[in-house]
């Protein structure tokens, strides 16, 4: 099969290679990949700003149908439409694992970083990580279940808004567009902020029904939040851009004692005004990846139409055009870019 491989550490070192089709061992499932989304993490791995264990097939945001099952697999059958959690193996015994937080296990090996992922025709995963898709959920749209689970984990586990609370989402990339929808589904009055570079993505925010969508290079974000909160500031700010100015803006727009949820990854050390966060006694939560309990929540939100991912997928390219896809994702000129195996 064709697969997009990180061949060595260091910037670049991505190549399309022909690999043997994976064969499921006991308890394993091979998924025929319908599509796999390009994540910010993939861009960070390409730039060597995020650790991977080459040679490894990248890609962890996927859905497809079951192509083969190994011995002892009863959860799913061949032909079932599925998505998968990215965890390939964990220690299972550390405090984090026992608390249902495999994303924090030091022994965690995930598809797309440690073991072969889904920028390929097939991906092999443990059967207990596979989830059947709700009937009304399109398979390609379900490739975004992973980012939905990430945002569901961060927002619902750490910073659930009270109904009517103003929630600011800074950064209208795919994560921001999903986070905004989840915060809205939780009852928040959502304000999505981007810059003039994000014109297309801000339009996607309007398309999926986010009530307040603003380009901060044109509109006065401080004034907008002040007007919506009687000058108090937002009780919840969600940083999804992974840039220092966005972080500083989030701190500025937060109300004293409010919550800052950090979802964006910066990929490097950055200089931000932490004193401003301290002086406001903000509660600062990092949210990294997702936990297993977030997956059914994500699928429920998607099946109910409360989180729409299909409109966010604005580019679908064959795997052979991965370089164009990565460039588009880096240029922020699209919503989610999805690569599909060339048939
Ligand atoms: Zn991802
Ligand atoms: Zn562990």
Structural account:
By secondary structure, the chain is α/β, with parallel strands linked by helices. It folds into two domains: about 1-130 and about 310-340, Medium-chain alcohol dehydrogenases, catalytic domain (Quinone Oxidoreductase, Chain A, domain 1, Alpha-Beta Complex); about 150-285, Rossmann fold (3-Layer(aba) Sandwich), CATH 3.40.50.720. It has ten helices and 18 strands. The chain has helices at about 40-45, 95-100, 145-160, 175-185, 200-205, 220-230, 245-255, 275-280, 295-305, 320-330, and strands at about 1-5, 15-20, 30-35, 55, 60-70, 80-85, 85-90, 110, 120-125, 130, 165-170, 190-195, 210-215, 235-240, 255-260, 285, 315-320, 335-340. The strands form four sheets. Strands 3, 5, 6, 9, 10, 17 and 18 form a seven-stranded mixed beta sheet that branches. Helix 7 (about 245-255) links the parallel strand 14 and strand 15. The protein is globular, with a radius of gyration of 20 Å. The N and C termini lie close together (about 10 Å). Bound molecules: zinc ion (2 copies).
Which helices and strands appear, and what pairs or packs with what?
Elements: E1 2-6, E2 14-18, E3 28-37, H1 40-46, E4 56-57, E5 61-69, E6 81-84, E7 87-89, H2 95-98, E8 109-110, E9 122-126, E10 130-132, H3 145-158, E11 166-170, H4 174-185, E12 189-194, H5 199-207, E13 212-215, H6 221-228, E14 234-239, H7 244-253, E15 254-262, H8 274-279, E16 283-286, H9 294-303, E17 313-318, H10 322-331, E18 336-340
Parallel strand pairs: 11-12, 11-14, 12-13, 14-15, 15-16, 17-18
Antiparallel strand pairs: 1-2, 1-4, 3-5, 3-9, 3-18, 5-6, 6-10, 7-8
Helix pairs in contact: 3-4, 3-9
The protein binds zinc ion (2 copies).
């Amino acid at each position: 099969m064709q697969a997009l491989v990180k061949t060595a550490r260091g910037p670049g070192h991505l190549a399309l290679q022909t690999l043997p089709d994976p064969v499921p061992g006991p308890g394993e499932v091979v998924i025929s990949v319908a599509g796999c989304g390009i994540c910010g993490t993939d861009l960070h791995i390409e730039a060597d700003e995020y650790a991977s264990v080459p040679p490894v097939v990248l890609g962890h945001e996927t859905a497809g149908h079951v192509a083969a099952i190994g011995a002892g697999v009863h959860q799913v059958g061949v032909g079932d439409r599925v998505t998968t959690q990215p965890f390939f193996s964990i220690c299972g015994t550390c405090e984090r694992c026992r608390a249902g937080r495999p994303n924090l296990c030091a022994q965690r090996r995930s598809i797309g970083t440690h073991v072969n992922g889904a920028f390929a025709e097939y991906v092999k995963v443990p059967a207990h990580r596979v989830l059947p898709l709700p009937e009304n959920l399109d398979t390609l749209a379900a490739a975004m279940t992973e980012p939905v689970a990430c945002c569901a984990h961060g927002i619902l586990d750490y910073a659930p808004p009270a109904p009517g609370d103003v929630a600011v989402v800074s950064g209208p990339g795919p994560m921001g567009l999903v986070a905004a929808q989840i915060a809205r589904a939780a009852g928040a009055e959502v304000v999505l902020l981007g810059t003039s570079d994000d014109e297309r993505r801000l339009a996607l925010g309007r398309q999926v029904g986010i009530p307040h969508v603003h380009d901060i290079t044109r509109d006065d974000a401080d004034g907008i939040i002040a007007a919506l909160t009687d000058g108090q500031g937002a009780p919840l700010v969600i940083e999804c851009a992974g840039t220092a100015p966005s972080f500083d803006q989030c701190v500025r727009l937060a109300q004293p004692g409010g919550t800052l949820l950090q979802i964006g990854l910066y990929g490097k050390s950055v200089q931000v005004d932490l004193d401003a966060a301290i002086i406001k006694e903000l509660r600062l939560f990092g949210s990294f990846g997702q936990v297993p309990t977030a997956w059914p929540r994500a699928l429920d939100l998607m099946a109910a139409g409360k989180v729409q991912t299909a409109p966010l997928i604005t580019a679908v390219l064959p795997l052979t055009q991965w370089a164009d896809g990565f460039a588009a994702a880096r240029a922020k000129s699209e919503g989610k870019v999805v690569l599909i195996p060339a048939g």
